[in-house]
Predict the structure.
Amino acid sequence: MTEENKQACNWGMLCHLTALSGFIGVPFGNILGPLIIWLIKKNEIPFVDDQGKESLNFQISMFIYTILPLLLTIFLCIFFPILLILLVANIVLVIIASVKASNGEAYRYPFTIRFIK
């Protein structure tokens, strides 16, 4: 693997891994992290353009999928298991995507609405 390819893989991996910053207390870090990496490198590295859009689309989709159960949990306390499933799925899929991107493989998240094309 050339140095250029390795760098592209590392930036692609960062597109996914920065989404986890939302779990360590960065407000909207799950969206802002991938957005920042994508905006900085999308014109330089095609792999980052692809994986950045994929990560952003997935995180925006997860945000939408989480809103309704979160609101219903606040008022009804019955949708908590759905929130846990979404949380675990988000973390696991981000890790899988990061490993794939690190290996130079483009990853496609399941159940993702493609907002950014």
Notes: The CA atoms of residues 6 and 104 lie 8 Å apart. The mean pLDDT is 93. Residues 46-76 form the longest helix (31 residues). The chain has one domain: 3-102.
